[in-house]
Design brief:
By secondary structure, this protein is of the alpha/beta class. The chain has 16 helices and 28 strands.
């Protein structure tokens, strides 16, 4: 269904809201290519300078398809986004990918001058700009601190509109529901020159405690609530705004939309945003959901919600530390007091309430065993733990990798990647495959799971005494000397430079379709909403971390191999 929006034909009536899914350029391209029902794609909120945001956890699940988030306006800054969007526009200048798409760039600032800088910088690469005057968990002076009052909303909107006057780019204002009279605030934004209104942002700030530990989950403690629990609030807000501003002003409505019935509840909106409902879905699943949702609206059915994931995705389990194996000063193996089933290359989050959480690749299921290297603030906290201390675990996440198509499984592993390598080697051994493992370490003390690997097949540990990359040299000599057997594959996991150089060597002996790398991106939410773990346009928390060398080469942005 095509729609007309600000005089422009769009491919569909649906919107991806700011901060959901399309937070990386490569995902924007994938969505534009795969989902015609989405006509408006919104970026994450961008500031003048890069912002690190809050420490994880940044998202928690109150109930299925209902979340509380406190991201803290994490973003790369306006200059980085400008460069990325400019490159994207150039790539697709002649292929028509964005002809019927509207790219909305969300911006935030603390002063009028910051908004004006953002407008002038980003207008050339955007179709519209959305002022984030509504984030409920931002630092003082940002977001809802501005948009909760008609006067400040008018002042900041007017400044942005003045900066946009030369380009003619439309300015939308995203409003918070956490006010007494949202209609008055919408009216003040329009009087200041805004082209339209987006309603609503998340509800809050509120806190949410884990039912198992009783601890607040978010490191920021409070955040904004999204999902079905706010649908009635969003629908009422849109109705109030429509009654206040009249029929001609464009309104993008959002908040808890997950079905055709929900869309109909937003009868005052011109376009509809869908966000939290997409949790846990891969891109094919998201495309199928929007396709069914549009069909439901055309045919007066209501089946789209049956395609959503209605089970818990972020529940924590409580474990206690059974044993801590000190491998080296900066390397420990934690053995927990229970079992957790996972597939090779899946990962879990370890959470220390009040300290933070990070994803890790486990080595063994029973008992759950995880290798951790001390790198920063949170891993230093893990190293302070003792036998009997509590650890909260959620997961597993990502799609697993089973080496069932090959008879010979070669593994190149380094660092704590040896944990995931052990999981894969055990899987291959259980399938009666021949296993060969090359492991790179910086010293004899750093060798991980050596006895376990030896029990599964040929284990070749390599120590980088004189120069980095000794494991690559040994592997190359081995492959040169020994004829590569038929039905072989290579699996790479460890430091990025090791994997890249290793795959160059391996590609002399095997086709790219039989060479794989487990690429661990920075992962924040685990359920596909934040988009931070993007690689080649995919979210690794959903698709999985394992990519063939062929797939790493095929994506136009270069991705991991760039």
């Amino acid at each position: 269904m095509t729609v007309i929006f600000l005089g422009r034909k769009l491919s569909g009536r649906f919107v991806i809201p700011s901060g959901i899914l399309t937070t990386k350029v490569a995902i924007i391209e994938r969505v534009a290519e795969m989902i015609p029902e989405v006509g408006v794609i919104t970026t994450k909120s961008i500031g003048v300078e890069p912002e690190a945001g809050y420490r994880e956890p940044i998202l928690c699940e109150a109930s299925p398809l209902n979340f509380v988030n406190a991201v803290g306006l994490r973003n790369p800054g306006m200059d980085a986004l400008y460069d990325e969007l400019w490159d994207m526009r150039e790539r697709h200048e002649n292929d028509g990918l964005f002809d019927e798409k509207f790219l909305m760039v969300s911006i935030y600032g603390k002063t009028e001058e910051e908004f004006q800088k953002l407008v002038k910088r980003l207008a050339p690469v955007a179709d519209g700009l959305e002022l984030n005057l509504s984030c409920p968990h931002s630092k003082p002076g940002y977001g809802a601190y501005i948009g909760s009052h008609p006067d400040t909303t008018h002042t900041y909107t007017q400044a942005a509109v003045e900066a946009a006057r030369e380009t003619g780019i439309p300015i939308f204002v995203k409003l918070t529901p956490n006010v007494q009279d949202i209609g008055a605030i919408a009216e003040s934004a329009l009087k200041a020159g805004a082209s339209g209104i987006t309603a609503i942002n998340t509800v809050g700030p509120i806190g949410y405690c884990d039912p198992v530990s009783g601890e607040p989950i978010l490191t920021h403690v409070t955040g904004g609530k999204s999902g079905r629990l706010i649908k009635d609030i969003g629908a009422k807000a849109v109705q109030t705004i429509r009654e206040r501003v009249g029929p001609s002003i464009p309104i993008i409505g959002m908040g808890g939309i997950a079905s055709a019935e929900d869309v109909l509840a937003y009868h005052g909106a011109d376009l509809l945003g869908v966000g939290s409902a997409l949790a846990g879905l891969d891109l094919n699943g998201i495309a199928g959901f929007f396709r069914q949702l549009e069909f439901d609206l055309q045919e007066r059915t209501d089946m789209a919600s049956s395609l959503l994931i209605e089970r818990p995705l972020m529940n924590y389990r409580k474990f206690h530390i059974k044993e801590i194996q000190k491998i080296d000063d900066d390397l420990r193996v934690f053995v927990l007091d229970g079992k957790l089933e996972f597939l090779p290359s899946q990962f879990v989050f370890l959470w220390l309430p009040g300290k933070g959480e990070k994803p890790f690749s486990p080595a063994l299921q029973d008992p759950l065993t995880i290798a951790i290297r001390k790198r920063g603030i949170l891993t230093s906290e893990f190293f302070r733990l003792r036998k009997g201390n509590r650890l909260m675990v959620r997961g597993p996440y990502g799609r697993g990798f089973i080496p069932d198509r090959w008879e010979n499984v070669f593994i190149l592993a380094g660092g704590t990647g040896s944990g995931a390598a052990l999981s894969l080697a055990r899987s291959a051994y259980s399938l009666e495959k021949r296993v060969t493992v090359f492991q790179g370490s910086t010293s004899e003390r750093q060798v991980l799971f050596g006895n376990e690997f030896r029990a599964l097949g040929e284990f070749i540990p390599c120590i980088d005494r004189d120069e980095p990359g000794e494991v690559l040299k040994v592997m190359k000599e081995y492959l040169d000397k020994n004829r590569m057997p038929e039905s072989s594959m290579f699996f790479n996991i460890g430091p990025e430079i090791m994997m890249k150089e290793g795959m160059k060597i391996e590609s002399r002996f095997l086709p790219d379709t039989d060479i794989f790398a487990s690429v661990e991106q920075e992962t924040l939410c685990g359920v596909g909403l934040c988009g931070n773990c993007e690689l080649n346009g995919y979210r690794t928390c959903i698709r999985g971390t394992v990519f063939s060398l062929a797939s790493l080469k095929e994506w136009q942005n270069g991705g991991f191999l760039k």
